[in-house]
Amino acid sequence: MDEAKTIKSPQGSALKDEIIKRTNGDALKCFNCGTCTASCPVMRINSKYNPRRIVRMLILGLDLPDEGVIWMCSTCHTCHERCPQGVNLPEVMNVLKNIAVEKGRIHPSFKKQIELLEKQGRLYEIGDFDNKKRVKAGLPEIHAHNKNIKKIFKSTGVDKLVESLETKNEQ
Amino acid sequence: MSSKYALFLGCTIPVRAVNYEMSVRKVAKALDITLVDLDFECCGLPVKSVNHEAYLMTAAANLAMAEKEGLNVCTLCSACTAVLTEVNKKMKENPAFREHINAKLKDTGLKYNGSVEVKHFARILHENINKIKGQIKKPLNNLKIAPHYGCHYLKPSEIYEFENPEDPKSLDELIEATGAHAVNYTAKNKCCGGAVLGIDENIALTMSKEKLDSVKESGADAITLICPFCSVMYDVNQKKISTTFNVEYNIPVVYYPQLLGLAMGFAPDELGFNMNRVKTDKLLEKLK
Description:
The complex is a heterodimer of chains A (171) and B (288). With 171 residues, chain A is mainly α. Chain A contains 9 helices and no strands. Chain A has helices at 14-22, 35-39, 51-59, 78-82, 89-102, 108-120, 128-136, 147-156, 158-168. Chain B has helices at residues 13-16, 18-30, 45-48, 52-68, 78-93, 95-104, 121-127, 129-133, 157-160, 170-177, 201-218, 228-236, 238-245, 256-263, 281-285, and strands at 4-8, 34-37, 72-75, 118-120, 144-147, 181-182, 222-225, 253-255. In chain B, helix 4 (52-68) crosses helix 5. The model of chain B has no long low-confidence stretch (mean pLDDT 97).
């Protein structure tokens, strides 16, 4: 088992408690029927991603053997729609992702996206070339704004967090 | 219903889906739907995976900008739609939460009071379906079109209270309004896989392949969709999927406003058809 990719709950149920708290008790409603896994388009292709198993392990206070799976959710919400208990599983995965980031681990794709947002307020740069193409197509020019996002990232500490992840990135 | 909206383009459309934006603006103008451009920033979706509070603040800041102008928001990307709708609902329904987020937003000088409505352009069109029917100049009678709803236009349904995601009808009805035939197919409700493209390319491409296989089997002339990310998967990546899995597709992928634009009498060039990656020549030929 790769240490770096494992969410550890050293105080026994610390991770479990945190997930229950952050999902407002949602994760605790799961009675393990497996409708989520049966409905999951990702699971059909790569069985490493098994939402039923992930929630079950967490509720039992166990560590995930491979934390990488939490980034595999396609956020299609089919599981959420069909769950007889109404558990919002993509939201559970988001809570797990947030916790992983707080512990210094992020998927490189998200790290890149956050850096781009801080720099230009949007994922794709809009340069002169793009604006020329836009004007030619009869569309207004667009300019990147990052005024709000920069302030939000600063006040929430996301900027510093992502900066520190540069050295801690272990994916 | 107000027919004036702040246009929320999002990150992808102004750079990678110019054809979508062109057709939206053309069709909107013809239907007297006024779209106003504001200096919006990213909706906040990528931030959701990293820091929940920063995500909520980013979305709320955008809503506050629209509110300041007294405008409701028209979204074109389904992912932006889900983000802004979800956070909007939270801000509207929970005053304590709203106060908390507004206090955190103090640095930005923005404050959101919860007065804005967020609607996907397709949903606005659906509300105007009778008006649309009255403006069809060249009905697309010969075309068989496979609707792709995508996930975040419908789900999670608890934030939209719009239509049943297991049996959606709005896009079928919009297709039929152009005179084209909306084709039913096995993988109709399947996800494009776009959200995992940056995480695991094989999963994403396989998910898109399943849809393309099903559309091919249905005999549809084209897929019609309403989200730039789904289009990246089916249109931009179609060649890659063909090569990877050794299957021939050549299925045109058309944004719904492009399709509607044709039926309303606009020329293909005005609707950006020359920018669609999979050639649309044969499709357009069928209309002559």
